[in-house]
Structures are given as structure tokens and as C-alpha cells.
Design goal:
This protein is of the alpha+beta class and about 180 residues long. It has one domain. Helices cover about 40% and strands about 25% of the residues. It has seven helices and seven strands, in the order αααββββαβαβαβα. A seven-stranded antiparallel sheet has the order 1-2-3-4-7-5-6. Helix 2 runs parallel beside helix 7. The radius of gyration is 18 Å and the shape is globular. The chain starts with 9 loop residues before the first helix and ends with a helix.
Amino acid sequence: MPEKSTHVDIELWLDKEIIPRQNSLKAIFWEILGEVGNSVDPESLKQIHPASLGAKLSKGNDLLGYPYQVLDLIRDFDRKEGLNIRVLNWFGHGLFLFILLGKNHPKAPFEQLRKNDWAFDLSPTPWEYPETLRKGAFTNSPTSGDFKKSTFYQWHKPIQISGEKIAIEDKILDELKKLIFLLS
């Protein structure tokens, strides 16, 4: 086991700009996700999944040492019949769209998801972002064996963003509209 460094980065510790910059950026993304959540028609979610509980924002400060924010839509996490759509903003890693489908959910557009650049996640439990995104526990060409082995179906897609707040909101909404169309 390597020895821990005893060096304390005093320059970083005294940097009065870094924390306010990060907090400002987190606040901007929080607003973006809130606007996106408010822009999704709750009735369109109920048409896809009648047990929809709508949208919910949450956040954390330590997913492998990085802050993250989550926008969940529908919010039925049952591994047999549930459906959830999640936007994950993981600082330092990117912005991602996830869909969790219960094993027996009737709206499972596997072929359409694959054709629209979605990756099928191979992790044994949902939301294993480090395993899925950093260790590559996914496939772009899932097999029937992959589906049989899984106790749920989770897919993800990176969302490429740049620039202005409104452009980021529009990009996320565009991807959500495409997904909602595939599920309709």
C-alpha cells in the first residue's frame, strides 16, 4: 500500500476563488435541472407510466469525491414493473441520461434505444455510476444473454453540452423528448 502524502497543499487551501466558483457552477446546474424538470409535462409522463410521481431534484457532494446532481422523472424504481428517467450531472465526469426499466415493464424499446446511441448497462445493481461510466460496465450491442442475466434494464446516454445555460437546458430537453417519444 502506498504511503499517504504528508504534504498539505497550502496554496489550494488558501485559494479564496475556487470554492465560490464551484458553488456558483453548482447553483447554475441546479437551476438548469429545475427548469428542465418544470418543462416536462407531467401528463406525458403519466401516459408512459401511470404510476409516475413526477419530477424530483436531489444532490450530493461525494460520488467518488465529486459533487453530483440528479433530476428524476417518473420515479418508480421497482425492478420488475418500474420506470425511471434520470439526468445525472456528475462534476468532473459529465452529464448523462439514464433510463431504468423494470424487467417486466411493457414499454421496453430495446432496439430503438440501441439505434439511438444508448448503451445497455451491465452492472448488477442500478446507479453504479463509477462501474458503468468509469470502468465501462456497458455494451453498445446488448445480446439476449445480457437481457436474460439482468434483473432490471438500465440504459444510459452521455449528453454533450457547451456554452450557455439556455443551450444546455435545450439539449437536455431535446434528449428527454426523444426518449419520451421512444417510450410512447
